[in-house]
Amino acid sequence: MDKSKDPELRDCVVKLRDDHEVEHCVRLRATSVYEAALRGLARLQKVGWEGDGSQVRTVVVEIYEEPTTHTVNVKKMLDWLKQPGRSPYDEFRKQKLRPLAK
After folding, report:
1. Left (φ > 0), alpha (ψ -120 to 50) or beta: where does 53 sit?
2. Residue 51: exposed, middle, or buried by beta-carbon count in 10 A (0-12, 13-18, 19+)?
3. How many CA atoms lie within 13 A of 97 on its CB side?
4. Phi, psi of 84 (to 5 degrees)
5. What are phi and psi of 7, to 5 degrees?
6. pLDDT of residue 1
7. Of the residues 12, 31, 57, 75, which has the fewest C-beta atoms closer than 10 A?
8. How do strand 68-73 and strand 58-63 relate by DSSP bridges?
9. Contacts of 72 (CB under 8 A, 6+ apart)
């Protein structure tokens, strides 16, 4: 299936501010806020921001198909991923996202 045609994919911008108050941002497509946050952290590492995400407190996720902005607490997100899902669907979502956290 062509992922560019997936109706659940949304255009997103993920932003973070480093210890030197420099803002870094990346545009991407994702199906959820957490997926965008994880993919954004990974992409920002590739383009020069150094870190594994564990020292970042929050990232801002802007979703452009919906007029919403989400601020994600990175530690809480990573802790949530480590916990087993509370339902089969919740566990399925976490299994999809866990490889992105590495």
Report:
1. left
2. middle
3. 26
4. -65, 150
5. -65, -20
6. 41
7. 57
8. antiparallel
9. 33, 34, 37, 58, 59, 60, 61
Q: What's the pLDDT at 12? A: 94
pLDDT of residue 91: 94
Q: What is the pLDDT of residue 67?
A: 66
pLDDT at 102: 79
Please say whether the dihedral angle defined by the alpha carbons of residues 46, 48, 49 and 52, taken in this order, is positive or negative.
Answer: positive
Extract the residue ranges of the chain whose pLDDT is less than 50.
1-3
Annotated domain spans of the chain: 3-101
* CA 75/CA 77 separation, integer angstroms: 5
Residue 58 pairs in a beta bridge with 73
Residue 51: the pLDDT is 57
Place of tokens 């919906």: 66
Quote the strand ranges of the chain, DSSP E: 10-17, 23-30, 58-63, 68-73
